[in-house]
């Protein structure tokens, strides 16, 4: 039952991947994915995710696994504030610590609630965001800011600082990482020291 929900999620994510030239060019889809029974770790945002109706197949699949997710929040209250942690969370769909294990890449589903500001941060790994549902205002150092909606993508190079603001409502994103630092976590701030 739980495994089937995650397989459904994986297939819905693969459909998004397969229909996006930008995602396909960014990284290959791993061929060695194996399901891992990860412990359930819930975050307050699960409640909001389940109540946000949207017809996108990956959005619906994410809602169906929400109660079984190994949800993560890689930031502390000191870094982002109490309110942020009440309406944010992400799942590692595949990767070294993902619901599907692989060392050949890393993919996340990330959710941020209405009105949140995800402050400037950076990481060594290169990254591409694909908006699944909702929208957000993407800012990246050295690049024009843009309000992106479903199907649109945004790439960040290694250690390029970026920020995200949820203007009109929440956002659900599918995110791929590649390259050096793929084992690491994002760090707050814009300096790379
Ligand atoms: Fe990022």
Mean pLDDT value? 94
CATH class: Mainly Beta
The kinds of small molecule bound in this structure are: fe (ii) ion
How many beta-strand elements? 11
CATH topology label: Jelly Rolls
- The percentage helix is 10-25%
Low-confidence stretches: none
Detailed description of the structure:
The protein is an alpha+beta fold and 193 residues long. It has one domain (2-28, 39-181): Jelly Rolls (Sandwich), CATH 2.60.120.10. It contains 6 helices and 11 strands. Strands 1, 2, 3, 4, 5, 6, 7, 8, 9, 10 and 11 form an 11-stranded mixed sheet that branches. A hairpin with a 2-residue loop joins β6 (126-140) and β7. The chain is globular and about 40 Å long. The protein starts with a helix and ends in a 5-residue tail after the last strand. The structure holds fe (ii) ion.
């Amino acid at each position: 039952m739980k495994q089937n929900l995650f397989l459904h999620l994986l297939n819905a994510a693969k459909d998004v991947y397969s229909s996006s030239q930008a995602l396909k060019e960014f990284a290959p889809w791993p061929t060695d994915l194996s399901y891992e029974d990860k412990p359930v770790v819930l975050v307050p945002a699960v409640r909001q995710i389940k109540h946000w109706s949207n017809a996108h197949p990956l959005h619906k699949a994410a809602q169906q696994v929400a109660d079984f997710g190994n949800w993560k929040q890689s930031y502390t209250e000191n870094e982002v504030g109490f309110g942020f942690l009440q309406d944010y969370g992400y799942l590692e769909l595949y990767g070294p610590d993902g619901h599907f294990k692989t060392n050949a890449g890393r993919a996340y589903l990330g959710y941020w609630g209405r009105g949140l500001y995800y402050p400037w941060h950076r990481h060594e790994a290169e990254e591409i965001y694909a908006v699944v549902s909702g929208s957000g205002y993407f800012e990246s150092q050295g690049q024009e800011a843009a309000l992106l909606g479903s199907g649109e993508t945004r790439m960040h190079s290694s250690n390029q600082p970026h920020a995200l603001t949820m203007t009109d409502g929440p956002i659900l994103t599918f995110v791929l990482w590649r390259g050096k630092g793929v084992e690491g976590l994002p760090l707050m701030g814009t300096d790379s020291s």
